[in-house]
Specification:
Strand 9, helix 12 and strand 10 form a beta-alpha-beta unit. Helix 9 runs antiparallel to helix 11 and helix 18 packs across helix 19. 47% of the residues lie in helices and 12% in strands. The N terminus is likely disordered. The protein is an alpha+beta fold and 625 residues long. Among the domains are: 47 residues; 199 residues, Periplasmic binding protein-like II (D-Maltodextrin-Binding Protein, domain 2), CATH 3.40.190.10; 97 residues, Helix Hairpins (Orthogonal Bundle), CATH 1.10.287; 77 residues, no CATH class. The chain is built from 20 helices and 15 strands.
Length: 625
């Protein structure tokens, strides 16, 4: 057992003894000096003793605080390790094809515009508050640059590489501009879109988060398939139900105000009266009324129905324009839980694209598989987030996800602004061309003829959209090397002060696009019109109603022919006419208070008597012959 294990408790007891003796005015100087000499010769004991000593920390006083607010880091320079992650950090010539790999010579700065982004603007604001300066670096491996004369995408896009440089060690020496003495004063940190995770807190000193965001999924949405009822699209189903109820309601009022003999155009029996009233109400709605009202109440009702018709036409026409200009889109996935909940329709059947550079995507899927028994994601591998979103657009993958700000920025700048959207949409083999016309004819001769080209246009339909709520929330922070220096605490104070000044809100509005504000660069050239498929439902319904009318007409014609050809049908027609006449007489009697209702029986008895008389006459004529 090392001597420090005994010396430290002994020294503590001695300190208590000194304190107690000091109270009584007696100091054991000989014993204390002897123990102190032994302690000075044991570095391990001194290190153990320091653990009981309060560590100094760096504090900053904001301009709004009481007292002075002097810049505590005046004339201090911090080394900042960045990585390319728009819209947080945008590095110009990140491949270093023009030289200065890793920005060792500090040729890229916010001042000359070669470093930009939300985090860069935030650091400029922090530097002004703390009075410090920054030197910016980014990961670029020496060996790769020596072989290829350019920096690797896996380096300058990697947050893990930036953290490796800040942490130090043998692996950090593989990058340009990094030596064994790099950050020996602990005044260095990594910046970008670094999340505050358990691993980061364990190995580094992160500041207070300057922004809180989370993951968002992106899928490809297609136009809603045209259905049998597409013509009714400008109105919701509930509104059509209200229209039908209104027609029925008006028909019932017509029965009350115009029925029961008031209007000669309406039959007397209740069923026929309702059917005719409903037809009357419907024809007014179609502006071809088949009857005229005879009462003031009926005339008022007709005016009301015509006004309702006017409103209905205006609203339908207005909504039709909006319906044509804003085609409804259908997305395959509405939220991330559609892939993890067992009750979901396509549980475990989604193809997720996993970027190699953005390792947090794969880690999150691994976590979900551990938390959900039996869940196994089908994974499509890609280099980075842009490649993953491209695979979703080309329908090689169903969905991918990442930090919402980064995802929105990539969708706007790599897809919507480059024509990879819309109906029709697509992309060109030459990334400089954003539409089909320029892709197939990028240049012309003096006569205006297209020059030969190897460009190929791949047509695709659909829009990339984000869906669902933000999940796996996290915060972005500056990440310092872990050590005895506590400068990160002052940076955390300054971060909170900048947030309270709404600087971060302003930077978000400046750098992060919104999904609702994204417009396809090719949409404005597309003329949206109605096609036959849009109206096929209305055409079929019209044809069906016409067919019913035709069938009724043919039936009436058939009965008419039968009456003329077959005598028995003529007798039946006469009976039906007599019954109808008697029913009308009975209705008149009922209106006058005569409730005799055996008229139909008398008609049938009378017909039987007539038939018997005719039979007797025929027998007499036969006997005479």
């Amino acid at each position: 057992m090392p001597r420090s294990a005994f010396l430290v408790p002994l020294l503590l007891l001695l300190s208590l003894s000194v304190f107690a003796s000091g109270v009584h005015g007696e100091l054991p100087e000989v014993e204390f000096q002897e123990l102190l000499g032994r302690l000075q010769n044991d570095p391990a004991a001194i290190a153990s003793l320091r653990r009981f000593t309060a560590a100094p920390y760096t504090s900053w006083t904001s301009p709004d605080s009481l007292g002075t607010s002097t810049p505590i880091f005046a004339n201090y320079t911090f080394k900042v390790v960045l990585y390319h992650v728009p819209p947080f950090v945008v590095i110009e010539d990140k491949e270093a094809e023009e030289g200065d790999p890793g920005n060792l010579n500090n040729t890229r700065t916010p001042g000359n515009g070669k470093l930009s982004g939300l985090t860069i603007d935030f650091l400029v604001e922090i530097g002004e508050q703390l009075g410090c300066k920054f030197e910016f670096l980014y990961p670029c491996k020496k060996a790769y640059y020596a072989d290829n004369k350019r920096c690797s995408d896996l380096d300058f896009r990697s947050s893990a590489a930036a953290l490796t440089i800040v942490k130090g060690g043998v692996e950090s020496l593989l990058y340009s501009g990094i030596s064994a003495t790099f950050c020996s004063d602990y005044r260095c940190f990594a910046a970008g879109a670094l999340k505050v995770t358990e691993e980061v807190i364990r190995d580094f000193f992160p500041t207070h988060p300057y922004m809180e965001k989370g993951f968002k999924i992106v899928v490809k949405a297609q136009e809603a398939q045209i259905s049998f009822m597409s013509w009714a699209g400008p109105f919701e189903a509930n509104l059509w139900i209200v229209v039908i109820c209104e027609v029925v309601f008006v028909a019932l009022i017509f029965m009350i105000t115009e029925g029961y003999g008031t209007n000669p155009g309406l039959p007397q029996n209740k069923l026929g009266q309702f059917l005719d009233s409903f037809y009357w109400s419907l024809t007014i709605l179609l502006m071809v009324a088949d009857k005229a009202p005879t009462t003031h109440a009926g005339r008022t009702l007709v005016m009301t129905q015509l006004f309702f018709t006017l409103l209905l036409i205006a609203v339908y026409t207005g909504n039709l324009i909006s319906f044509l200009l804003n085609k409804p889109l259908i997305s395959p996935m509405d939220r991330f839980q559609d892939a993890t909940e067992e009750t979901a329709e396509k549980f475990g059947a989604w193809k997720f694209c996993v970027p190699q550079v953005q390792t947090s995507v794969g880690k999150w899927l691994d976590l979900q598989e551990r938390l959900n028994d039996g869940l196994k994601f089908e994974r499509i591998q890609a280099l980075d987030l842009v490649d993953c979103v491209q695979k979703v657009y080309e329908e090689e993958a169903d969905v991918t996800f990442y930090d919402e700000p980064v995802l929105l920025y990539r969708m706007q700048n790599n897809f919507y602004s480059r024509g990879k959207c819309g109906f029709p949409g697509g992309f060109c083999s030459d990334s400089a061309q954003t539409d089909e016309t320029s892709c197939k004819c990028p240049s012309k001769d003096t006569l205006g003829r297209c020059l030969p080209t190897d460009n190929e246009w791949t047509p695709l339909k659909g829009n990339l959209i984000t869906r669902g709520e933000v999940f796996n929330p996290f915060g972005y922070a500056l990440v310092f090397r872990k050590g005895t220096v506590t400068d990160y605490m002052a940076f955390g104070q300054a971060t909170q002060f900048v947030k309270e000044q709404h600087t971060i809100d302003r930077l978000e509005n400046q750098w992060i696009p919104q999904m609702d504000g994204m417009a396809c660069s090719t949409t404005s050239n597309t003329l949206i019109t109605l096609g036959l498929e849009n109206m096929q439902g209305m055409i079929v319904l019209t044809a069906g109603i016409a067919a019913i009318g035709l069938a009724i007409g043919l039936l009436e014609h058939f009965i008419s022919v039968c009456v003329k050809v077959f005598p028995c049908c003529a007798c039946l027609e006469k009976i039906l006419i007599d019954i109808e006449a008697e029913l009308e007489r009975e209705h008149d009697h009922a209106a006058r208070g005569d409730h005799t209702n055996d008229g139909a029986k008398r008609i049938l008895d009378h017909n039987e008597e007539e038939n018997e008389e005719e039979g007797e006459k025929e027998e007499e004529e036969g006997e005479k012959e």
